[in-house]
Amino acid sequence: MTKSKTIPVAIQGERGSFSEEAAIRLLGKNVEVHCCEHFEDVFRAAEKRRVRYCVIPIENSLAGSIYKSYDLLLRYHLQIVREVNVRIRHNLIALPGVSFQQIRTVMSHPVALDQCEKFFERYPRLIRQSAYDTSGSLKKIVEQQWRDCAAIAGERAAKYYGGEILMAGIEDNRENFTRFFLLSSEPEVLTNADKMSIVFSFSNAPGALFKSLSVFALREIDLTKIESRPIHGRPWEYLFYIDFLGKMEDPKIQNALNHLREFTEFLEVLGCYPRDSRQRKKRM
Question: Do 180 and 59 fall within a single domain?
Fold first, then answer.
């Protein structure tokens, strides 16, 4: 039996992270993960074709949009080919054999620390320490053998680095999901693609935004997200990122995009891809 070929994919963060979980959910277990410290390194790896794909978080159901990802989407012109929503479950993880009473410092990404506010209120003796990554925090604890320190990270990180979960599910809100995009330097439209992402801008004129959005309302196209980002070098002017349900080949969608071009000075399709299957079931 021939060995299945691995799929190289870049992520921000370390092995065992939620980004790695998203990559496996999107591409299967046969992924070859390339870890990057910064988001820009992730995009650059895909653009230079050092990897076939990259995975980036685009928004969190509690913390909101990840602005760095939005800005880099336009700068690197990669195509969105899939999405997945990953449930974020935070756990307190330490070295094996360490008790909760020994813990003095808790390390994690700032967003993860903020999402466990009630836990820190319950245990005010604990000192928070910010790190660039959830799983990276545990990796450092294991490497340094810090017995008075714990990390907030996912179950995958505990398994990968050999940590022990002292407390599971310490996040404030159980409805905590992060939406991830799978990006590629090459267009890849799947037959079940039913969601699209675009970005556009227009001259600052009365009613410009209303006119732009009306092209979707007139055709009863379901918008699922609207995000605005400032245009660098042009104060008080904005780019608008929009997600909506529809297929690229649908005449209704093509007519809407052509109509939108009448009001905009810039328009780019970021991708047409299958929406997360669980999201599809929820909307039915």
Answer: yes
Q: Tell me if 190 is assigned to some domain.
A: no
Q: Average pLDDT for residues 111-129, to the nearest whole number?
A: 96
Copy the structure tokens of residue 218: 């007139």
Q: What are the C-alpha distances in Å from 47 to residues 28, 78, 79, 111, 194?
A: 22, 7, 10, 28, 25
Domain count, the chain: 3
Domain containing residue 261: 195-283
3-state helix, strand, coil in the chain (%, to 5): 30, 30, 35
Mark whether 216 and 146 lie in a shared domain.
no
Q: Which of 230, 233, 250, 93 is nearest to 157 (CA)?
A: 93
- pLDDT digits 0-9 by tens, 185-208: 988 878 899 999 999 999 878 888
Catalytic positions are 178, 180
Closest residue by Cα to residue 179 from 73, 247, 87: 87
pLDDT at 18: 96
Distance in angstroms (rounded) separating the CA atoms of residues 37 and 53: 16
Rg (CA), the chain: 21
Query: Which of 16, 81, 6, 8 is closest to 42 using CA atoms?
Result: 8
Is the Cβ–Cβ distance between 279 and 59 less than 8 Å?
no
DSSP 3-state assignment of 120? helix
Count, residues in the chain: 284
Distance CA 157, CA 107 (A): 13
Angle (nearest 5°) at CA 259 between 257 and 261? 70
| All residues at 6 or more sequence positions from 61 whose CB lies less than 8 Å from its CB, including other chains | 175, 176, 177, 178, 179
**pLDDT, tens digit, 9 for 90 and up, residues 264-284:** 999 999 999 999 866 544 443
**Nearest Cα residue to 172 out of 66, 89, 59, 58:** 89
Determine how β-strand 64-65 pairs with β-strand 53-60: antiparallel
pTM: 0.91
Task: Look up residue 62 and give its two tokens.
Answer: 């509690």
